Amino acid sequence: MDIKLLRIDSRLVHGQVANNWAGTLGAEAILAVSDGAANDELRKTLMLQTGGGKVKVHVLGVEKAARVYKNPKYANLKAVIVVETPADVVRLLDLGVKADEVNVGGMTFKQGTKALSQAVYISDEDVKAFQEIDRRGVTQYIQQVPSTGRTDLMSALKSKGFIS
Predict the structure, then answer these.
(1) What angle do CA 23, 140, 112 make, to 5 degrees?
(2) Does residue 14 have an active-site annotation?
């Protein structure tokens, strides 16, 4: 599989992903990878309607997404993979998905999270997952849409005092 973008976005599939990212990167498919969404028919249905046009949306659990990634049938598929949390990225890496970079797009505020940027709120668990991804040599950056600049995630974590 030709992963055009591996993105963390707690909303999974929405306009920024379907229109801006997938279109700019020439993706043929968006894989919304979430065990919760894959088992929630209403949420799944809403996401499937978001793609439209040339980009097909698929909602898969983490393990199934890893199997699809490894399937030779999809070797040339140009895909955007969107997960909800950095822990999902770690799980995908553990299951053999290869990634050079992770885009951190939007992580909405929840109880127990703190602002890292205007659109990214993180927990202590998220920080640990980001550190694990970094240990594996994967570059991580914050960028909401293709037309905005990138911010190095690990530098942002240091500057905000989340890590030393």
Answers:
(1) 105
(2) yes
Given the residues 11, 14, 64, 128, select the one marked as catalytic.
14
Give the model confidence (pLDDT) of 89-142 as tens digits: 999 999 999 999 999 999 999 999 999 999 999 999 999 999 999 999 999 999
List, as one string, the DSSP characters of 88-142.
HHHHHHHTT---SEEEEEEB---TT-EESSSSBEE-HHHHHHHHHHHHTT-EEEE
CA–CA distance, 144 with 149 (Å, rounded to integer): 9
Rounded to two decimals, the pTM is 0.94
Give dist(CA 25, CA 78) in Å, integer.
9
What tens digit of pLDDT does each residue of 20-58 get? Answer: 899 899 999 999 999 999 999 999 988 888 766 678 999
